């Protein structure tokens, strides 16, 4: 009987101790309620505004990280900006016409065309020069260049 009373008192004591630390706000923030996550929220928290501003300031300060935001408060993860930049570099800073640009992870493949016939040594030299220009313009990727004749 004494052991049962001791076990019961320990259980009650344990429940009282653990119940005192109930947190009214979820650890995930104000976007949760008692039924779970709110998927639609019309409120814009001040913290979210400050976080967007901080992200914009960081990306604007690094010249190797182009600003991908089209408007304030939005971010973009599209790689189309880099593909367009690669085509622009090929078009403006070489005598070749840009064609396909592919990005896979940290690799970028750029294809350029020429109407001039070139031997293997000339092609290798031109590919190396174009790769150097692209690497300086877009240092984020390891760039592979292929020049074809049309």
Structure overview:
This protein has four helices and five strands. It has helices at residues 2-19, 46-61, 80-93, 120-137; strands at residues 32-33, 36-37, 97-104, 107-114, 142-149. It has a three-stranded mixed β-sheet, with helices on one face. A two-stranded antiparallel sheet has the order 1-2. The mean pLDDT is 75. Strand 3 (97-104) and strand 4 (107-114) form a beta hairpin. Helix 3 crosses helix 4. It is α+β, with helices and mostly antiparallel strands. The chain is rod-shaped.
Short description:
With 150 residues, this protein is an alpha+beta fold. It contains four helices and five strands.
Which properties best describe this structure?
150 residues; alpha+beta; 3-stranded mixed β-sheet; two-stranded antiparallel ribbon; 4 helices; 44% helix; rod-shaped
Strand order of the largest sheet: 3-4-5
Distance between the termini: 97 Å
Question: What are the secondary-structure elements, in order, as H or E?
Answer: HEEHHEEHE
Shape: rod-shaped
Helix content: 40-55%
Computed over alpha carbons, the radius of gyration is 29 Å
Quaternary organization: single chain
Write the layout of secondary structure elements.
Elements: H1 2-19, E1 32-33, E2 36-37, H2 46-61, H3 80-93, E3 97-104, E4 107-114, H4 120-137, E5 142-149
